[in-house]
Specification:
- This protein is an alpha+beta fold.
- It is built from three helices and 13 strands.
- The protein has a 13-stranded antiparallel β-sheet.
- A hairpin with a 3-residue loop joins strand 11 and strand 12.
- The radius of gyration is 22 Å and the shape is globular.
């Protein structure tokens, strides 16, 4: 009798393992069956086209840095963006407080095909430092955002794969895999949730070069400007490997302010005020 019970338990365990394996294999096969690079690229192009024509913009940002123990520090930032024509967008980020970072400025010239040009002005040294392409995965001013994250996300920087449709926070979304073209990227892939109605990004999972989940970025509190352009007023980046978090809170958006491309030249870094 005891031998029969043991045999029954062993058989039951084997069946459970087989069932689990079959379920996993079915899930993988289903995902592969519906995956589509063509559809993924089409979605990315449509999202990009919907944001064309904003010209330039400015915004105030509160950056909140939080460690794994819940201790936080805040920074006040001004953000300026200039829409590129043949190349990617240009952006200028200026730190106003606290005192240890006041006057620090970051300039980014995004390239569609080549590595981005990025510079950091350090007022204490009165020196402009170029950010090497090999350092783009490094943390931006001690935050959970990398220099790579701060650059504008051009279509040409990734290959794409539509994975599935999925509901997120009550919204019907496309789920698309973004694979960086640049081999120096800090990410192997990104999984992006984008709503079908307006093609707004709501969530990104970032996977490191070992394909382990590294960070999750969520976009909240969207507002529309000029009857066309959507901007999120709250970005939250969580680092799953360190337990740290960075929030970006945007206010006072302005568009078509009269800025020109000259306002985003390297020489402008030392003239920020």
């Amino acid at each position: 009798m005891l031998k029969f019970v043991m045999l029954f338990k062993e058989t039951k365990m084997k069946l459970a393992i087989i069932t689990m394996f079959v379920t996993f294999a079915f899930t993988v096969m289903t995902t592969m069956a519906f995956a589509s690079p063509e559809k993924g690229l089409k979605i990315a192009i449509e999202a990009d086209s919907r944001d064309k024509g904003f010209g330039n913009s400015t915004a105030q940002i509160k950056m909140i840095l939080m460690d794994k123990y819940g201790q936080s520090t805040e920074r006040a930032i001004r953000n300026r963006t200039f829409e590129g024509d043949n190349e990617g967008d240009k952006s200028l980020v200026i730190f106003d407080s606290p005192g240890d970072v006041r006057g620090t400025a970051f300039l980014s010239h995004t390239k569609k095909a080549d590595s981005d040009d990025q510079w950091l002005y350090l007022p204490a040294l009165k020196r402009v430092k170029r950010i090497a392409s090999s350092n783009k995965a490094g943390p931006f001013m001690g935050s959970e955002f990398s220099y790579e994250d701060i650059a504008s996300q051009e279509v040409e920087k990734y290959t794409y794969n539509y994975l599935r449709d999925e509901e997120l926070n009550g919204l019907d979304c496309f789920v698309v895999e973004y694979d960086p073209v640049d081999r120096k990227s800090g990410y192997k892939r990104q999984i992006v949730w984008m709503d079908k109605a307006e093609y707004r990004v709501h969530k990104i999972d970032f996977y490191d070069r070992k394909d382990a989940l590294l960070k999750t970025l969520t976009y909240e509190d969207y507002n529309q400007y000029l009857d066309k352009f959507w901007r999120s007023n709250r970005l939250v980046m969580i680092n799953h490997q360190t337990g740290k978090k960075t929030e970006l809170l945007f206010t006072d958006w302005k568009f078509r302010t009269g800025m020109t491309e000259r306002d985003f030249e390297k020489s402008a870094l030392k003239q920020t005020r």
